[in-house]
C-alpha cells in the first residue's frame, strides 16, 4: 500500500493534468463549432496542435513516459512532433 505522503503530490499532479486535458477538450470543441477564429484553416491547425499536446500529456503522465528511459521518451516526443507537423502540413497543402 502506498503511503499517504507519497500519494498526495502524485495525485495532485495527475489531477492538474486531467483538468488541463478537460480544458483542452473544451477549447477544441469550442473552436470546432465555428467559434473563436474566423479562419477555418487556423481553427483546424489549433485543434490539431491541442490534440497532440493532449496526446503528449497522456503519454507522459498516464502512461508514465515522464520517468521512462531517455531514449523511449525522446522517441515518443519525436513521434508526437513529427506526426503533428506532418498532419498540419498535409492539411495545409491539400
Distance between the termini: 54 Å
- Average pLDDT, rounded to a whole number, is 89
Question: Uncertain spans, ≥5 residues at pLDDT below 50?
Answer: none
What would you report as the Rg, rounded to the nearest angstrom? Answer: 16 Å
Net shape: flat
Oligomer: single chain
Order of helices and strands: HHH
Largest sheet, strands/sense/barrel: none
| Class inferred from helices and paired strands | mainly alpha
Number of β-strand runs: 0
**Beta-strand percentage range:** under 5%
How many helices? The count is 3
Q: What's the helical proportion of residues?
A: over 70%
Please describe what this structure looks like.
This protein has helices at residues 4-32, 40-62, 70-93. It has 94 residues and is an all-alpha fold. Helices cover 81% and strands 0% of the residues. It is flat. It has 3 helices and no strands. The longest helix has 29 residues, at 4-32.
Amino acid at each position: 500500500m502506498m503511503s499517504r505522503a507519497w500519494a498526495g503530490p502524485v495525485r495532485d499532479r495527475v489531477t492538474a493534468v486531467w483538468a488541463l486535458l478537460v480544458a483542452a477538450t473544451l477549447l477544441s470543441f469550442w473552436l470546432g463549432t465555428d467559434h473563436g477564429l474566423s479562419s477555418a484553416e487556423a481553427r483546424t491547425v489549433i485543434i490539431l496542435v491541442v490534440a497532440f499536446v493532449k496526446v503528449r500529456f497522456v503519454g507522459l503522465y498516464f502512461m508514465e513516459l515522464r520517468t521512462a528511459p531517455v531514449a523511449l521518451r525522446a522517441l515518443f516526443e519525436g513521434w508526437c512532433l513529427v506526426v503533428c507537423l506532418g498532419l498540419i502540413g498535409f492539411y495545409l497543402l491539400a
